[in-house]
Structure formats: C-alpha cells, structure tokens
Amino acid sequence: MTTTPLLPNHLGGQWVTGSGAGTPLFDPVLGTELARVSSAGLDLSTGFAFARDQGGAALRALSYGERAGLLGAIVKVLQANRDAYYEIATANCGTTTKDSAVDIDGGIFTLGYYAKQGEALGTARALLDGERIRMGKDPVFQTQHMLNPTRGVALFINAFNFPSWGLWEKAAPALLSGVPVIVKPATATAWLTQRMVKDVIDAGILPPGALSVVCGSSAGLMDQLQPFDVVSFTGSAETARIIRSHPAVAERSVRCNIEADSLNSALLDPAATADSEAFNLLVSEVVREMTVKAGQKCTAIRRVFVPRVLYDAAAKAIGAKLAKTGVGNPRNETVRMGSLVSQEQKASVLEGIAKLRLEAEVLFDGNGAALVDADASVAACVAPVLLGSREPAKAKLLHEVEVFGPVATLMAYDSETQAHELIRRGEGSLVCSVYSADPAFIARAALELGSAHGRVHAISPDVAASQSGHGNVMPMSLHGGPGRAGGGEELGGLRALGFYHRRSAVQASSAALDVLAASAVPFKV
Asked: N or C: which end of the chain has fewer CB within 10 A?
C-alpha cells in the first residue's frame, strides 16, 4: 500500500520532514488523500532559537521601510503562484473559485496594504508614542514613550478556515515590526499554508529564520516560548483556555492574542418594511454570509434580529434565495457553495444544528436537494439551514452555541432596547451589522453595541454599492472582539504593530531625546 508524501516543515532555516506515517490531508468532496503532515521528531528548541536569534536580528537590522519592501516582494511571489494556490484550495478546502479568492487574494491584499503602510515609516527603527512630557518645572528633563520591536518570535497557531489569509494577516504586521514568524497551520488545510511559505522561502526574500512553518501536531510548541515571544491563536474557546493556562503565558508572561467563538449578529431597523431597501440589503447579506465558504467564517452572521412584524417575510425572502444555492463539487461551474473542510466538521455542524433545533423551528433546509457532482456519502457537504425563533428572549442555546457552517437563526424582537439586549447575550462578538436608512438608528446601535463587538458594520442604502461586507475583514479596521470572541485585537492599520512592540518610557535630557528621535518616527494610527 502506497501513501502520499509528507509535506516538509521549514524550521531552523532548513527544510525538515517529520518522522512517522504522518496525518493525512483529504479532498473533502472526493474523499481522496492529498498529502500527509508530521511534526514528530523536529528539534523545536533549536528551531525557535534560530528564529529568535538569527531571524530576529536580521529583521531588526532593517528599517521599517526596508521591511516593507520585503512584504512587497512577497506579494509579487504570491501573485505569480496564484493559480497553484487556487488548485490547492479547491482540492484541500473544498471551496469554489469565488470563495478561494476570499482567502487567497484577501491574504495577498493584506500583505500589500502593510507594505504600503510600512513605506511611510521610512528609515526609522523605533516608534515614538505620543509627545514628550516635562518631568518637572525645568524643561530640560523630559519623558518620551517609545515602542521597540520585541526581541522574540511570533508563534501563530491558526484555524482551518483561512490557511492563506490567516497566515498573512498576522505575518504582515509581525514581519513589518521586525519579529520572526513561526506558523502552525490547522492540520486539515495545512497544504496551502505550507506551499505559500515554501514559495516565499524558495524565492530567498526573507533572511534565514524570519519565516518558518510547522505542520502536524502542535505538541511542544508552546513549551518553547520565552518572555519576549508572542503567541496568536485563532480557533475554539476550549483550545484558547489551554493556551491561556500554559506556563508560557501564565508564568512567563508571553503576550497572547486570542480569537475564539463568536455569535455575530445582524440587526434590522424596526422602521423597515418588507419592500424597503434596508430589508433587501439584510436578506442579501444574510444569504451571502451563510453560503460564502460554506459559512466557515469566524465573522459569519449567526443570529438575525428583525422586528416581529417582519419575521415571516424575512424567513420567506431568505429561504427563497437560499433555495437557489447549488451545493456540491466546487469544480462544477454551477455550484455556488462547496463543502466543509472535513468529515469531522460536517459531523460537528450536524450536531450543532440538532442542538439549536431544541429551541428553534426549521424555516429552510436545503439538505433535501441532491448534491451537484458529489456523492453525499463521501462529500463533507451540508446545505444551508435557516432556523428561527419567535421568542428568542426565552432561548438559551441560541445565544450560546455557534454552529460553524451554513447555519443562521432568525429571531423576532419587539423593541430596539430588547434587540440590543438580545444581541449582547452573545457575550462578545467579532462583528454586528446594522441595516437601516436612518443615520440616528445606526449611531444609537453603534453606541449601544460597540462595547460588545470588535466591529459594528452599518449597511445603509447610500453605501449599498461600496460597503465591504459584514464578514469581510479589512486590514484598515480592527479585527477581534471582547468576551467569548477571545478579547483579542488584530489589524486596524498600524495599530497591529503594537502587539509586536514593547512600550517603554525614556526619561532623559531633551538633547538625548533629540538624538533618539532621529532614528524613530511618530506612531500615528
């Protein structure tokens, strides 16, 4: 019996193949084995030390502008290999071409954005945080806060749904800051991450140790972290708890960023009617968020709040659009929604739907239709399911259980105040979108819901054609959320660099601070 080859890891400045049979990666539609990954037998301690000492020193020797140039060069390499990435995404992630673009082109766009942002920082090697402040009556002695790149590594433990964007949205600000990156992609979809890293390494753009990839088990990775390292995790709340309680974080104070579960919401203005543009915008956005990447987005809409009088109309309109969604093999041009990434995820989604049905009615279920060019007994496909609750105030599970797939729950509300209260029962989310033609309603929602969300996305008729989408994470805006969403922050323009820098106060004569300022640039976000 022959097995597929092991994908090599890159650690310690060299390609290293893990030991053992490895873990297989599958085509989630056809069920065929594509490759295997293994991190067994890797010398993690030496690899982390090499990245920290060699890669970090080489990056810090460059200015922000020079590091921005490296990001720009990476963009060119990735653009030259886009076709191969799309083929891998179709095979390993089960995504349509349009859905693959969200991940692949989204990651490249984010890299390009930070390359341009970094250019503006020029020859500086540190960032000035705020103005100088007198320490006493005599102005000769002052304090200047500054930010210096941390002298450690950035460990990324990423999720399965965005193997490209999940890497580059973290790596772009890290590398621009001068911090070497070690990425551990989710095993099920590791192939795309590994291939992108390989192309960048083969192109010789970055200094040795600046970018590493470890595929397979994450065992031992957290043990390597030292006080000046940072770790960023995207995934389940359960794994997040393990990371937060690890001695690296709990005892060695390794800086930690978490993005976890999120019951994102959509809110329709009570002044809307069934024939209003705000109503139609909500319907379209809910359908898009349920079906893009088969609902496997941390920002996807999970709860839809509409005034009670529009509950039936919304259920009918959303269901009618979902009924037109062809599900199956993404290689077929008529297919609009591909598969989940694995049979494990399919089982999890079906289990989640069963839980939600304990408190919700089924308004639409597309799973009665045949799959397109796919065997239902093999493919990890689940069609869109719209659930509903006329009394969400009495529900518990609907505000606690996130089903990570093409599933959303429509909920009726009786007042603006009640809607806000129900949305906050999600206990912290990445994004809430608001649909209204009334600027005052949007402003009230932002003030009421901003503290419970990383982002409030308002879709009004005047921005219908230009708005970026409820679930699209743009590099100039914050990504993250409080509470159950993990309490982390990523992106937000140059704000993202803060995670990879250490703030200190330099108390000195104005003459010394003048010299310091010559090698730094104001940190303007």
From this structure: N
Catalytic residue among 93, 215, 298, 432: 298
Residue 508 pairs with which residues in a beta bridge?
142
Query: From CA 82, how far away is CA 196, in angstroms rounded?
Result: 10
- 256 as an active site residue: the answer is no
Q: What is the pTM of this model?
A: 0.96
* Backbone φ, ψ for residue 341 (5° rounding): -80, -15
Q: Which residue among the candidates 93, 215, 256, 259 is catalytic per the annotation?
A: 259
Complete edge-to-edge strand list for the sheet that includes strand 301-307: 361-365, 385-389, 407-413, 301-307, 264-268, 429-435, 453-459
* Helix/strand/coil percentages in the chain, nearest 5: 40, 20, 35
Cα–Cα distance for residue pair 209/344, rounded to 1 Å: 34
Question: Nearest-CA neighbor of 297 among 84, 98, 99, 94?
Answer: 99
E-strand ranges in 215-293 read 230-234, 255-259, 264-268
Asked if 426 contacts 399 with a C-beta cutoff of 8 angstroms, the reply is yes
Which pair of structure tokens corresponds to residue 188? 């099920």
d(CA 488, CA 491) in angstroms, rounded, equals 11
Give me the helices (H) in 357-425, please.
416-424
In whole angstroms, give the CA distance from residue 314 to residue 12: 55
Q: Find the CATH number of the domain harbouring 478.
A: 3.40.309.10
Q: Which domain holds residue 200?
A: 9-61+125-163+179-259+495-522
DSSP class of residue 6 equals B
259 part of the active site: yes
Q: Which two tokens stand for residue 168?
A: 């580059």
Classify residue 368 by its DSSP letter. Answer: G
189 in any annotated domain:
yes
What single letter denotes the amino acid at residue 475?
Answer: P
Same domain, 330 and 315: yes
153: number of CA atoms within 13 Å, CB side? 30
Q: What tens digit of pLDDT does each residue of 317-343 get?
A: 999 999 999 999 999 999 999 999 999
For residue range 291-315, list pLDDT tens digits in order.
Answer: 999 999 999 999 999 999 999 999 9
